Amino acid sequence: MVPAAGRGERLGPGAPKALRELGGVPILVHAVRALLGARSVRTVVVAAPADGVPGVRALLDEHGLPGQLGKDVRVVAGGETRQESVRLALAALPEETEVVLVHDAARPLVPVEVIEAVAGAVAAGSDAVVPAVPLADTVKQVEPAARPGGPEPVVGTPERARLRAVQTPQGFRHRLLVDVHAKALAAEGTSDEAPVTDDAGLVERFGGRVVVVPGHEEAFKVTRPLDLVLAEAVLARRRAVDGF
Ligand code: C5P
């Protein structure tokens, strides 16, 4: 499934992030195509902005996506938060689904090998699988500044070799993902813990083992304006190499 209901304000003004174009094709269409290109994927559920369901449906139809290779593409209304969008998309999955991949619309260039590696690891018995890459930068933990705009005190430096930057698609046993989303909904507002920013984080918080498989540098998230420049360059190189 593809949560695509975010506004993507960090990219700057303009169309919602998922509808921005890369090489003349909306980012969301790239992401859905990448999933449909994986042999193990049968159904794709897109969570669109609540007022954008017909528009997203039309966009996918326009790019000839539904029915591709006999696969099913559904569009549902997303929610206020990424977590709510995923929960609403989960409700639209076929009951008999065993493995669910959650893929950010904002990662349009994820290579098919990453999708298959994640799906394969869940099929082979893991409950929750995330693709991840080592960090180039050292990471510091900080505390809020003593006064607004002042310097933030550093309180720690985690060992870089043991840190990973996590990408998507993240893969789960269907029942486990439904279960942790239900628990998260029930626990909403009852805890002062930091909000969970990915689905694997819900599994960690509400019970379950998460493992990592190698991610890929091209599975980066298009977040800031410079990411669009990088994505255009990756796409141009792919088109030159495979004529795709
Ligand atoms: O904001 P961020 O880049 O972390 O969003 C990650 C993904 O979650 C994006 O694909 C975005 O469209 C999606 N999202 C969503 N519903 C929201 C907020 C974000 O589906 N309410």
Look at the helices and sheets and give the structural class.
Answer: alpha/beta
- The Rg value, from CA coordinates, equals 18 Å
Q: Which residues form runs of ≥5 with pLDDT under 50?
A: none
- Which range best describes the helical content: under 10%, 10-25%, 25-40%, 40-55%, 55-70% or over 70%? 25-40%
**CATH H level, superfamily name:** Spore Coat Polysaccharide Biosynthesis Protein SpsA, Chain A
**Biggest beta sheet attributes:** 5 strands, mixed
What is the highest CATH level, the class? Alpha Beta
What features would you describe in this structure?
A hairpin with a 2-residue loop joins β2 and β3 (25-26). The strands form 4 sheets. Strands 6, 7, 10, 11 and 12 form a 5-stranded mixed β-sheet that branches. A 3-stranded parallel β-sheet has the order 1-4-5, with helices on both faces. α5 packs across α6 (199-206). 33% of the residues lie in helices and 19% in strands. It has 244 residues and is of the alpha/beta class. The chain is globular. The protein has helices spanning 27-36, 53-62, 82-90, 112-123, 174-187, 199-206, 225-242; strands at 2-3, 21-22, 25-26, 43-48, 72-77, 99-102, 128-134, 141-142, 154-156, 164-166, 170-173, 210-214. The protein has a single domain (2-131, 166-242), classed as Spore Coat Polysaccharide Biosynthesis Protein SpsA, Chain A (Alpha-Beta Complex). Residues 3-6, 18, 47, 78-82, 85, 104-106, 221, 223 line the site of cytidine-5'-monophosphate (C5P).
